[in-house]
Write a structure and sequence with these properties.
alpha/beta; 332 residues; five-stranded parallel β-sheet; 12 helices; seven-stranded parallel β-sheet; single chain
C-alpha cells in the first residue's frame, strides 16, 4: 500500500483551525492502516517534510498526496499533476475543477453530491469526520440554560436573539478556546448554532458542522441552521430544531419550551455510530484499497471518458432540443 502524504500549509500559528484538526484526525486514522505523515508547503517546520524538498525525489509512484486546503487545491493539483493525488474535500463552492485523475474523498454527503454533479467521471468516496468518544451524555445536572459559541454565529443570533434570551434564562456565550468542550456540552440544556450567514460570506459551504453533532451526543437540545454538511445528520422536528424560524418571538418561545421540557429530541446511537472511530476506520481501509488499485491502473491507461465541460454541455442541450423538434414536426 502506498505511503500517504497529507499536504498542509502549516500546523501551527495562523493555520490552526477546525479544518486542520479534522485533517490531523484523518491522518491518525490513516496511520492505523498504512504509513502516513504530514508534509507542509507554505510554512517550514523543524519536524515536518517540506513539499519542495520532497518533489526533488526521482520517483514518487509509491506515494499518494492528500490535498485538502480549499483555497490552495487548484494550484496544488496543477503542481502535482504528474503525481498520485487525492482531494480530501471538506467544504464545497471553491469554484475550481479537477481532472478525473484525482479521486475525491468527501466528509459529508452534501459535498459528495456537489462533486458527483461537478465531476461525474471522477472516483468519489464518502468518509465522514470522526466524533470522539468523550462526546457522550453523562446525565449530569445542567446549570446552563442556553450555550452559544460566538465564532461563526449569525448577527441575528448574537445581537438580537441572545440579548432577548438573557432577560429570560441563563445564557453562556463562549468566544475563546474551550479545554473541556464535552464537559461544557454536558452542562447545557440547549445549544444554539447558526452558521449559514457566516459561510455565505465566505462563499463556500459548511463542510461538516461538528459542534451540533457533538452537542447532541452530549444530550443537548440543539437549535441549528441546516446548511451544507449539517443537512447530513440534522433532521428538524425529529432530532433538532431549526433556528431562525420566521420570527424572534417564535424562536424564543421554542427555546424556552425546550429548556423546561423533561425530555427532548436526540440523535440516535445508530446515527452516531456512523461517525465513530470503528466505522470510519473500516470505511477508510476500503477506500485506501480502492485508491491503490486505481493508481496501479492509472500507470498503464489514460482517461478516455469525455468530460462534462460547458462546451459539451451546451452541445448536448442543443442536440436534445433538435431531437424534440424533429420528433414533433417531422415524425408526427
Amino acid at each position: 500500500m502506498r505511503k500517504l502524504y497529507f499536504l498542509l500549509p502549516g500546523t501551527s500559528g495562523k493555520f490552526a483551525c477546525g479544518g486542520l484538526w479534522a485533517e490531523l484526525k484523518t491522518l491518525k486514522l490513516a496511520q492505523q492502516i498504512c504509513s502516513a505523515e504530514v508534509v507542509t508547503y507554505r510554512q517550514r517546520e523543524p519536524d515536518k517534510i517540506f513539499l519542495n524538498d520532497l518533489l526533488k525525489a526521482q520517483n514518487l509512484n509509491d506515494v499518494i498526496f492528500i490535498i485538502s486546503w480549499g483555497f490552495d487545491v487548484a494550484k496544488l493539483a496543477n503542481n502535482l499533476k504528474r503525481q498520485n493525488v487525492v482531494y480530501h474535500a471538506h467544504s464545497s463552492g471553491y469554484n475550481f475543477n479537477l481532472p478525473a485523475s484525482i479521486p475525491i474523498i468527501t466528509v459529508s454527503r452534501n459535498t459528495l453530491g456537489y462533486w458527483g454533479q461537478k465531476s461525474p467521471n471522477t472516483l468519489i468516496y464518502y468518509l465522514p469526520n470522526e466524533i470522539s468518544p468523550e462526546f457522550q451524555n453523562l446525565h449530569l445536572n445542567r446549570d446552563i440554560d442556553v450555550l452559544v459559541q460566538a465564532r461563526k454565529s449569525s448577527e441575528y443570533l448574537l445581537t438580537e436573539l441572545i440579548p432577548t434570551l438573557k432577560q429570560k434564562c441563563n445564557v453562556q456565550v463562549v468566544d475563546s478556546y474551550v479545554e473541556d468542550l464535552p464537559g461544557l456540552f454536558n452542562r447545557a440544556k440547549v445549544y444554539l448554532y447558526d452558521s449559514a450567514e457566516y459561510w455565505a460570506q465566505q462563499a463556500v459551504s459548511e463542510g461538516f458542522g461538528l459542534q451540533p453533532m457533538e452537542a447532541l451526543a452530549c444530550g443537548c437540545q440543539v437549535f441549528s441552521s441546516v446548511n451544507g454538511g449539517l443537512s447530513d445528520y440534522l433532521d428538524p422536528g425529529f432530532n433538532c430544531y431549526k433556528i431562525a424560524g420566521y420570527s424572534q418571538e417564535y424562536d424564543v418561545a421554542r427555546i424556552l419550551k425546550a429548556i423546561q421540557a423533561s425530555s427532548g429530541l436526540s440523535l440516535s446511537e445508530q446515527v452516531l455510530n456512523e461517525y465513530r472511530y470503528e466505522n470510519i476506520l473500516q470505511r477508510l481501509e476500503v477506500i485506501l484499497d480502492e485508491l491503490n488499485e486505481f493508481f496501479d491502473h492509472k500507470q498503464h491507461y489514460q482517461s478516455n471518458i469525455k468530460n462534462l465541460t460547458q462546451i459539451r454541455l451546451k452541445r448536448l442541450i442543443i442536440k436534445s432540443i433538435y431531437k424534440k423538434v424533429k420528433k414533433k414536426y417531422f415524425q408526427g
